[in-house]
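Explain this record to help learners:
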Amino acid sequence: MPRLQVYLPEDIHAQLKARGFSPSELLRNAVTAEVHRHELIEQAETYLAELIAEVGEPTAADRAHAASIAEAATGTPAMAKVG
């Protein structure tokens, strides 16, 4: 297994020690989770591209309907389109 050297600010190191956490295990878990997150994003982007190729881009009405569903489900306004 390759070895890495990681530098942490003193306050974070003190928090790790105070809680008895293993920095190596935390880093390993964080890196594994981040890699998995990126894999899921890539899969979602692939699926979305395939879906758009199959049925076409969503219309403005489709986007507005989706935003209203998201707002109803979360209780927060959907993000406005930027750009």
